[in-house]
User: Fold these one by one.
Assistant:
Number 1:
Amino acid sequence: MSADWPAIDLVVNGDRRSVQAPPMKRLLDVLREDLQLTGTKEGCGEGECGSCSVRLNGELVNSCLVPVLQAHGARIQTVEGLAIDGDLHPLQQAFLNCGGAQCGICTPGMLMAATHLLASNPHPTMTEIREGLAGNLCRCTGFKRIFDSVISAAAQTQDPMANEAHAR
Amino acid sequence: MRGNAEAHELIAPGSLHAVLQVLAEGPGVWTPIAGGTELMVAHAAGRLSAKKLLSLWGIPDLRFIEAGADSITIGACTTFRDLRLDPAIAAHFPLLAKAATWIGSIANQNRATVGGNLVNGSPAADSSPALLVYDAELELISVRGKRRVPYTEFHTGYKKNVLAPDELVYAVHLPRKFAAHRQYLRKVGTRRAMAISKVELAGTALLDTGVISEVRFAAASLAPFPTRLYQTETAVRGREISPQTIMAGRNALLEEAAPVDDIRSTAEYRRAVAANLLEEFLRSLVVEQPR
């Protein structure tokens, strides 16, 4: 049966990957099962919680709502693509410093949504941060420390492109 | 995930022409899927009945915003993110731009499409009230050609519409005739982001020396599908804004609304809030608009 499945070509965190998968398989499941990139988490599985957030051709999406066929040929960035050789992305460092991560389930999604926000808006206001992360739920932190983490990462960045450049 | 990916077929013919051919060869066989923000939820829950799906994502002929002299045309697969970023939409159809900001989250807005919102046909569809008060017209397409229907005639019942089995929504046309109208849109839900509305009301009104000369109201979650409130419009048209006019409008709306009790709210609450939103809009008309 698998021989009948189409080859799906992806560029994941800068690397070319090809998988054979049922076209209706969720991008989330392809990342976790076929590519062993388990940083991306499944929370609700219905686009409400943002745990499975990744960037697809630079756009923030819920990977649980993307049939993998629709990602054919796309660039995908996951949380694994943020740190380079153990050198943390400024947002990851800020989450560590500010207590932005507790149990950790929402953290990969929060980091991707925050990366997406800072890519287009390097110095967001609190209102813009709240809106940028409104699709990501956290049950530990009460959100305050997550927002503080984003502000802290943004404050360190003089060059608007630095956050983006760090990420592959 | 309770759904089984292997139980569903998905093809992506890649062009509008090819998609229409597939639909023509098997009318009713294929279910179009655009950004997947509705169908993929059903899929994950194991309740997606469609076995054969046809991808509309990434077809440039369906994703465009064209500003013409008399109208703005929005391709069916234009995302709500596209709408938010478009200066012509913001300038000429601010209610639609506003509705786009509160559809789900950024991640949802990057995938959810205008056409998908309409074809899905939820009674609570966020973009519908704005499109109704802007006199939107839908352009439908099949291999047989194109046809236009007023959006007010598109929905025919709960999750039912006038699309033929081989047809797609191609575009939404918005006439540029509301620049002088006073405009209103408010959604009431449990939170600003993500939440599906309990009730949403839109209005456009033209005042002529203090008299309401032209008026449109539309609502989501007051009927089996998003609807214009014609009786309420009739009750206030040709009148000055006064306590009597407001009362006449409220009474007509309470008469005309047919909401239901469901998990998000009650019919009684929806009626009361819708009447309050109407009053809020009518009262705002008394204040002179800065020019």
Number 2:
Amino acid sequence: MVSVPVITVDYSDLCRLVGEEIPEDRLADLLARIKVSLEGEEDGELELEITADRLDLVTVEGLARALRGFLGKEVGLPNYEVFDSGWEVKVDPSVKAVRPYFVGALIEGIELDETALVAIMRAQEKLHQTLGRDRRKMSMGLHNADVLEPPITYAAEPSDSVRFVPLGETEEMTAAEMLRRTEKGREYAHLVGDGSVVPVLRDSEGGVLSVPPILNGELTRVTSSTRNIFLDVTGPDMRAISQALVLMATALAERGGRIGTVVISYPEGPIVTPDLSVSEMTVELDYVNSMMGLNLSAQDVVNLLEKARLGAEAKGNVIKVRIPAYRSDFLHPVDVVEEVAQSLGYDYLTPELPMHVTTFGKRHPVEKASALVRSLMIGLGYQEVLNYVMTSREVLFRRVNRPESPVVEVANPVTASYTVLRDSLLPGLIAFLSRNTGAPLPQRIFEVGDVVIPDETAETGARDERRLAAAVADSEVGFEDIQADLYALLRNLNVSFELRPAEHPSLLRGRTAEVLVDGVSAGVVGEVHPEVLELNKIKTPVAVFELSLERLEVIE
Amino acid sequence: MTREVSVTEGELRRIRLLASRGGRADVDKIPMERSSALALASLLADKGLVLVERRTRKVLRLTERGKDAVNRGLPEERLLDLLRTSGGSIPLSRVRESDLFSDKAELDAALGEARRAGWISFRKSDGETIVELVSAPERSPLGEALRSVASGVQEIPAEAASRLRARGLVEEDEIAEFTLALTPLGVEVAHGRVPVVMEVAKLNRELIESGAWRKVRLKAYDVTLPPPTVYPGKSHPYVQFLEEVREILIGMGFEEVKSPIVEAEFWNFDVLFQAQDHPAREVHDSYALAYPATAPVPPDPDLVERVRRTHEDGWITGSKGWGYKWSFETAMRLMLRSQTTSASARTLASRKDLPLKIFVIDRVFRPEALDKTHSMEFHQCEGVVLAEGLNVRHLLGYLKEFANKLGFEEVAFRPAYFPFTEPSVEAYVKHPEIGWIEIAGSGLFRPEVMIPLGYDYPKVQALAWGIGIGRLAMVRLGLDDIRDLHSQDLQFLREFPARW
């Protein structure tokens, strides 16, 4: 699932970045406090599950940054010095229709060993998958800045006129060929429309850095000897690409790089990226304490927030919180409250029941009626079964000779067996009997459950209806047998009813009746047609009934 | 010396029958089925009324070949008949050509037997062997013996019996014979000279009404013998578990609510402040509908407007919002409920009678292929406490109470992330065998959820939690395959204990 990213980090790399050897069990406890769960460990690599709101923890550098706070090694806002790199990226109007936005940064003076290089590539891929929704919303590239001659141009060009050696290839080819011939080209070609025009990043000498969001060029390959990195991020969503840039730039800064800003010249005017400006939020001490059921002092709260790598300052009972740019998960002061709770640790929150909340429990009327009906059916000797609401047209119609009718149908089924919602319980019971032809007789089964009926007058175009259905299979069983049980049931439910001869496509004519309550049909009772029995390979006669609890008026 | 004798009416009748036949008879002579007669004999022997003598007897029985010989005559008899109808002599080649013998072995037997008995002789004429009738009885003695066996006579000459056996026409079998003989006590009983207590097998209405039960003795049964299997009417184990959970929550003061299976995205996501481009809203995480596709009736327009603004810029909630253009059309798209929180959201929108404690136990749907651990349809159990002055510790209090009532002593909490709650908490319980298992996701509803629904946040708070109740059911029921919760195997359901 996209919403739960799982990342892989090198254990010793993490410890190196934290600046302390942390035993694994202690690490697991620490990680749990920032909602990260340690899923497994193999060959010195940790599998970690992080939450969708904390993409700053996708990078091992970000994880270390957070852990240093909890360990008290470094608290409060991280201080990233930013310099003006003097680099410029010109965004040509032609990209508007293809992949309109670009942001970038220059990272200087970084030293990367192989482990660090792997960590950065992994983080990049994970960001592509999560924030980038598989590169659709965002993609980024890292380049060896030393081979580049600024300014850089971001423009859309015909794909057969772009010639370069794609990363991992040995020969030069056009972008059009790259889309066909390389693995990444084929995988992501759908992101550049028909592929006739592609976005391209070139330096002032025409060297191709990248054809985003597909592939970088071999020209700017980053290796362990690279010291200066140019970061490019493109996409259709300015917010997503800016966030990705900040996450990656600050991660590289945690590795010792210095962050240089780049001027991005859009036709509408220039912007400067990355934007590392700190945002502010104020939160009242009373709010924090009332939500947590605690009595912390303002200074306690400040200390706890600083452990969470936030800036915090108390003025009386108001706490001013400064949030680093890489934390995009602060929407409301309530998010600050959570930081306080996490820093404190949930173990310090003693469970307590509120004595001022007095309410009375109550079963839903539908469940009350269902429980009553269920107990009567059990008294009549029936075994309860529980089928899925999802089923197939095969089971619902064809296998029981019913003509097809509109039923609720999903647009994205996973398997052919589950594509529609049942509008009757009987087909499921017949399918059940057909799977149990070898079990001892008599077989007496029932189900109490919802069917879903398309209904244009219902608020959501369909309504749930609670029903009861029963079936008896025996070497000799007929209408009169199930009818006797039906009468026993309805008499005990104190329902006035009458039977009227009826027809049902699954049942035998002349041995089928409608159950009328106040002149309205509340269900059907009858013997299953031998044709249906044959279709289901059932060797014995089967008698059935199905009733709507609403129509029986047994629901209060 | 007097001894109490108790007999059933049927037994007494048989004893009298035996007495009338001189106190002794073969079991086969008793007019009832042999096995029942033997069982009766054994009961009477136990009571000291009869002696059962067992003997074995050898009997002759026809083999398949023997039966054939009875129908068609012995081979040598057939040969003699042929000779007689051919004027007393016939070339051997013609005997061979005749269809009287099924194979050469039978022909050789016929020639050999007839010659040894002196009934025929052979001579040569023009290089051909001629068979001639010498003198022969009308019927062969061995054939006569065989036919007597066939007619049920067992007493045949010993020599004939051994020859018939040697030729595979009869075989010897051993049968057991039982003779019942009244003991002196039996004789006394038969003649009514000993008082007997009448014994009956089944107490019935007549015995009770007439008061005759006082005079009879109820026969003792072997109460250790297993009866035939009976399958009672019974509830489904999973339903039973869900009912138990329902009872616990009702006992804790929660009121049950429901919502439709076919739901508008608005109630499943938007009201819960899940952004329209949130990953959980993508096609692989929930079922979109082909039919019906759009909700025909929009929710309260004021609520829609408040939700729109909250998503876009936070409205008056104090939130920044998600910063995108919210789409009404997207919100009106229909789907299969993917979380029971939609029911909670609907209830919070319609009910304002605080304090309110509600719960939901219902099915939710996600696009998964059905296998041992995944299901496209499963149950969630969800609770919400809505009141003034609630905090995180109260949430933990309810979770702990609920876990304890489900039988889990140890509970632990961890921070978590859910889109519509903050702070969010995951609850874990310790299972004696499995260890720590996650049972609930929970939290306090976000202001972006509460304020558009019309609540005075933060004064009024909503504590909410949800449980994948199916997984918990599997732990409790000892199942390791999620499909067993909807088992299609009748015997599995019939044999599953009602109290696990």
Number 3:
Amino acid sequence: MKEHNNMIRWIIFAVLFSWAIYALIPTYRTYFSSEKTAVDKIRLKSDLSKAIEKVERGENLSGLETALIKNYGDNEEYLSLADEELEKLSNFEKQNLKSMALGLDLQGGMHLVLEIDYDQLLKNKALKKDKQLDDLLAAAKLRSGTDKEKYFNEIKSVFLEKNVPLNTYFGKPGESDTKILASLDSSARKGIATTLEVLRNRIDQFGIAEPSIMPRGKHRIVVELPGVKDEERATNLVNQAAFLEFKLVAENDILQQKINDIDTALKNEDGQENSNAVTTDTLKTDSLNNEPAVSEIKTETDSTQAEDATKLFSDTSKDTTAASQTEDELAKTSPFKSYLIGGRSGEILVKEKNRLKVVAILKNDNVRNILGNYEFVWKNKPDVYNNEEYSEIMLVEKKAVLDGTSIVEASANLASGSSATGGWEVPFELNRDGGRIFSEVTGKNVGRRLAIILDNKLYMAPNIQVRIPNGRGVITLGGGTAEEARDMAIVLKAGALEAPLEIMEKRIIGPSLGSDSIDSSVKASIIGSIIVVLFMLILYKVSGIFAVIALFLNTLFTLASLAYFKATLTLPGIAGIVLSIGMAVDANIIIFERIKEELEQKNTVLSAINAGYDRAFVTIFDSNLTTFIAGITLYQFGTGPVKGFALTLMIGLIWNMYTAVVMTRLLSDLFTKKNAKTISI
Amino acid sequence: MKVKTTNFDFMGVKVPAMIISAVIILIGLLFIVFQGGLNYNIEFNGGYLMQAAFKDKVDITEIRSAFSTGEFPDIEIQEFSDQNSEKYGTEVVLKVESTQQDIKLLESKISEILNTKFGKESYEVRQSTSIGPKVGGELKSSTLQAIIWTVLLILIYITIKFQFKFAVGAVIALAHDMMITVGLLSILGYFFGFEISLSVIAALLTILGYSLNDTIVVYDRIRENMTKYKGMEFEKLINTSINETLIRTLLTGACTIIVVIILIIFGGEVIRQLTITLLIGIITGTFSSVYIASPIVLYWENLMHRKKHLYRA
């Protein structure tokens, strides 16, 4: 009977062993053999093409790229591999040949924990924005602290307290607070799903080998980008809302009107008397002329540029009476306008040092009312004239004629020919509806400018010279780098993040540290294992050999399980394996000591072995189970590397039950004669 | 190897042993109070950490002076203990505790200071960690939850498998282990700047499991002997049981401790907090199975008996 049982057990062992080897083959191929998987080939081909492009453009190559071209540049195999074929192959590999993944702490990479910024989300969704809204939302945020769940409830209470119905800012007029709250809540939840989608699209295009973008809880997203090289770019890619809008630029007369109105309103607010220096029609104010910057900007010779700056604002460029006005007096007479300087192509510039003041003015409720359907937007980057920084500010219609959701295609190109600076540009293509709207808008507004605004920052505002029927356009970056252009193309294509994200946690492990960690942990594992092996052999001799074989199998099965279920091996995870080895020994020690005890009682060898295993099993089971419980809670509450530790510990314990008890028994039975008088133990 | 079962009177010295434990715990507590709480790292308190490897040798005082006049005069700068002298000149770890919400800003400010003084190309960022203030607080509460759940589940399991008095002994032994370990870590924190990090928590939870493991082996033998030697006085029974399992306890303990020491020596700095905590915990855990868990069971048993006697009388 026992023979029969043992036969079955050996068969089971054979099955498990083959499974383990099968499960580990992909890992071996990925990390130890030089044969490349399809995934590697794809990456290699992409890196190679990029390097070749760089050569064609005459750009400098990095050391890695030079080596790539040297080794593979002529290799027809890589250059001729069809992309679709490779895709298919790599997908097959990904599904069927599971290799063990290395954690970020071993291969290097970036780990981000993002949280939806509900505050900002609501502000974006609000029908109108004013100080009251800002205050109410801030109060709700303060009260709810870090608890996102409470946030929406707090909004309800805060609005209720101040007696402001929610439909002032959200939803449709007349809708009840509860209904609006419910729909806000649901769109917040949908926000996570769409955010995940958008992020995945972006990261996909960025070209990370095996990114992981997972929700955590109800409000957070964990992004892991193994092997990412440019962390800054990656962070921005993930973080950027990428909300693109096309807005018509206000016409000149309206612009002047608004500026004057603002000045008037501000002066009234301060209780200052109306200065007679300000006229209400054309901006004849000479204050601007006194800014030396104007004439200096003018000296930049560019005959192709249109307007003379001064013409925009005044005819009296030689007015000397105004020369005596000091800056303070200017500020009094025209509190807003005094900060504005005309640029050579008719744009309005603000000195960087004055920027905060202007921003404050624009936040003023009165000013917002005056602006009405218009708003000012700032240029994305300041310009430098004569060693001073200036930022452009432009008045545009608040309502966008088109937004980024209509974009279906975007790419990055070097501007061809015409621009002197030879910058990068992002040509884009709109979908059918978007194209139709674009055609209408451009048709109706020839001669006006159309501002292209990304994340509330102005990129450019080209003149609409003719109706654009085919839904295609170009955003010129006016300089910029290849990366900037490519990243913009990526986010435009992937879509905007409706829910802005806040970074809660960011970890970056450099690849050099990762490989150092691998080295040291492998060293520790090997030395630890050797010592344990010696330990067992010295203590228990031949029986010790069985225990050692069991230990080896334990490790093998643990690694195979990690590979088969595509778990991630982290540095603490390796520590967990080593610890498991130490603890696995315990099981065998319990068994062997028990057998010795039984032998001392003058029992036969066979009965001693039986008793030893039987009795010890209960103890081993109890003790392993309690450590397992600790592992479960660790797994539940831990993150990343700690989870890896808990996982290897638990898997190790489970296999330990099998290897330390069943396997050693099998081996012992195999080598112990039936009527043996002694055993080596 | 023929071994004669030892016959030490373990329970005889239980009082001195427990006193020693109490003293160690007290000292640890003093250190904790003295430092104003546990020495949490940025994972719990929020802040920024950067491990920078400079290609050439750099004097730490130079690095410190770059920060002394700015926003971060309290920045902690230490030399990374696993100096890889062939590859790098000097490797340092910079730590700033901050409750700054915008962690990108914190990171860029610190990088800016380094770049200005030393140039971006002169060092390599081996790793960096930015933790916002919210995450830290949540970590503390989830850690507490983890520990409570673990202890609870274990309590239930032991009550089912053994008896309640055993569970009480086990839990008190676990509490003892936690307190000694955390206390000793605080002492290390005072003298060597040892910080409580996530991996320390992982090690603590593992120790809970391991200590239990050990305790159960002793309990198992006590349980077996309770049926085997029905008439024996309980104190003698416990002594016998401990003596019988002594070899196994010492061997396993030795084996595990050696393995962890290897991990400490060769495993590298990155997991050092994990491994050091494990070492302290495993030693304490082994000890507590004998000198805390068992005496408690004994005391409980005597207490229950005395109550019964009182009743009858």
Number 4:
Amino acid sequence: MLANMNRLVVNIIHESGCDRRAVNELIAEAVEVVVFGSRAVGAHGSSSDLDLLVITPYKRRVISHGLDCVLLNPEEAENAFWLGSELASHIAKYGLWVSGRDDWKSKVRISDRAIIRKQDRISSILRSAAQRWQRLHPLFQTKYRITLRRELQRLNLLVRGMPVPPTPILDAEWNTPVHSGQDLFALASDHYFLESRHAELAYALETVWPTSVDSQREAVTAGRSPHMGCS
Amino acid sequence: MKSKEKKQNRKAIKRLAELLVDVKDSFGWYGIGLSTDEAGEVEQPGAAQVEEDDNEEEEEDEEDDEEETPQYYFDPADVQVAVDEAISTLMKEGLLPEFSRAKNAPKLSDIFSVLFGDRSEINGEIRYFEKLIRGYRDEAHIDDLNEAYGTLQSIIEKISPKKAKA
């Protein structure tokens, strides 16, 4: 099956080190297969998983080492929930089609629901990390600052109706002079979602990402490492 | 030297088993592993309802879907942070000297590789657990979280020191 595909995609799948038999089985049944994420744009680290969107009438659970699969049936690929999602917009812009047509691509538009989900994600990270903050080793505190920074970058793009790029590209953009930690902190703390929800989230944000520490930016920039790279 | 290392490893493994029990308890946030009474009191956080129905026009989205069986996905942040807290505790207690100069936060599977050896079968189980609690794009299905809970329970039983028979 892999032999029939274009060389670039075959190389991406081979290099990922994932279970090729699992990929072959998925492709054989699928209506449409798309590689996305860091491997699709050549910005991956050695430990990055292979991200696949598989549109298939035979949806089943796939948990395989080195492989992250999103499975949709053909009807789901046409519904508003999917077409408005962060992931659909990401794949529409950065995906590499292995097989099938990309009919749904032109219908993608980031929905309010996708933005609310991202706000929920940020709230969850803040709440969970802040509760345990003092008990986390500094390496993990850095990890959560990086996670929070990336999620805020993603939120910033989504509210502007822009697709979110793979994580290594986000990290590279963060390292340009255009961005600053203060900007993202302002985005988070001024954003209505923090004010309108729990007051303690604002406190949590200050705990996880104190504005007063200039060196914070350096710690948060440490996300360039491939180990911290891909989610 | 080797026996000193082994002793150190045993101590770390014993402590790891204790800390993983705390991680297991964090599943209570999702209503997993609680008694029936406790589960009734849990307000499940971050639950995202995903409609199974297609063709969902805006008008149909009105509040008439009470009879549908919701399919729940959760943000697994709480369990993920609980895992990181467990690793942090081991590191702070000096039980993982191998990671004292680490530049990036280690994963649970990294810790298991060091404590049980690269070829141990339990490494596969812990990687599976990690995959389940990672979910995908910030969401884990409740079935995966339930399975993660069972997997963790099994891991804890395997690594806990055997109690002496009475």
